[in-house]
Design goal:
Largest sheet: 7 strands, mixed
Strand content: 25-35%
Low-confidence stretches: 528-569
Number of strands: 27
Number of helices: 13
Length: about 575
Amino acid sequence: MLSLSASRLRDRDILSKSDPMVVVYSKKRDGTLEELGRTEVIMNSLDPAWIKKITIAYHFEIVQPLIFHVYDVDTKYYNLPVEMLKLNDAEFLGEGSCVLSEIVTKQGQSLTLDLHNRNRNRGLKNLGKLTVHAEETVASRNVIEVKFRCSRLENKDLFSKSDPFLRISRTVENGGSVPICKTEVVDNNLNPIWRPLCLTMQQFVSKDNPLIIECFDFNSSGNHVLIGNLQKSVADLEKLHEQKTGANFILPSSAHHGHGKVLKGQLLVDHFSEKQLYSFIDYVSRGFELNFMVAVDFTASNGHPRDPDSLHYIDPSGRFNAYQQAIMEVGEVIQFYDSDKHFPAWGFGGVTNGVVSHCFNLNGSSGVEVEGVQGIMAAYASALNHVGLAGPTLFGPVVNNAAEIAGQSLSCNSRKYFVLLIITDGVLTDLQETKDALVRASDLPLSILIVGVGGADFKQMEILDADNGCRLESSTGRVATRDIVQFVPMREVLAGGQSCVVQAVLEELPGQFLTYMRSRDIKPSACSQHDIAQGSQYTQPVVTTQMIGHTPQITMSKLDTRMMNCSTN
């Protein structure tokens, strides 16, 4: 919800002061305005604080431009509902504009705008100020964290043991039930231990509300076999934990007159605690940042940049190629969450200084960082003039560089989370090396977005994106701590009717961010002015990657990121 107040508005009334009202619009991609709501009219005030709130749904994955129009409403219309007021009958006092992300990333979630003439036409410049305050509407941040395990489950498989998971549902008034969460699947185990679950107040309603807990044997066909169920409230689960006792599952059976058969298998509660579950907005409004990084594919399969059929072709008409489109759309969203807007930008698979490099600075000798999204676009266009296209397609060196930066930041500033965008047209040559790098990086404050362009077969990329529930495994058998990859093939997004790639590629990012913060028990405490000053001055490592044989060797030195070099020969 948005709360609005203003100061030093223009006085357009002769015998009294202006009677102001604000109309709030969202600006669509085609430039048209959609009205979101109106405040009430406040009589005779140049410094109003409106009571009525404007409701807007926050979407991280898109840019949400807002336009604010302030009007002086004639006294004779005061008793009319504001929705019925004709704006042509009101006097225009000023306009302000911003992006919703700019508000939610401010400490205190408040942003003050200078009011100006409509469409910034010439005229009076000092039209007052409008302050916009955003407040997230959350029924309750209190959650219950509970860790379940089972003992002596009945085996439902013939040639192995059951693969159990739990499904928890809330009972509703009509006697039915609504599923609210489930655990992961534990393979081949009759005494499974699951990772902790978080149940929100919205999910279980009250601690005394009955919950149905069902244990199933997972089948890939989707026909999961019920092992048993039971009914317990959150308060009952707390007692099981305190008393260190278990509850027996029941197998429903008509032979037992609807009561079911009591099984030997038991549900136990290893951990039970009440805690606060913070939202993505809680973090970004308290000084936490998303630091953007980009890596662009310069392999020969893209086609020569001067060929109009090339994926790297720069159209003289100004129409974006696929690489430009991905950089612009993703960068435009994330830039609002990065305070200094200095972005590391790399290329890979190209020829620089006569040798093939799998990680080179897109900005050439000027350093790894560029300024703003336009800086990335300019560096990319310039690189096409002096970098030769080669190959093969290797992600490992770029992922390792991003991971080193994210890892070093932990000792300097825990309020930073890193986002690497990789744009590629080809099939990976170093799939296992990339999986190893991603598994190592899964412990770090890092997410990796991969956009596939062109018509290649991207099945390997789908392996990296663990949306099927199977986490990546390294060559040494280590399993990724969490899923940090989101892959989107641009052709499928556009074919599916979406006008932009950014919504598809960014949809999992807030969840990955929250999974990391919660797993480290990092709370969004307010950022002090000292922290802000330190955060703007902290140093990151210089990462220089060299190929010794076929293995990338990484060396580091403590220098500011603006001096950072990246070269892979």
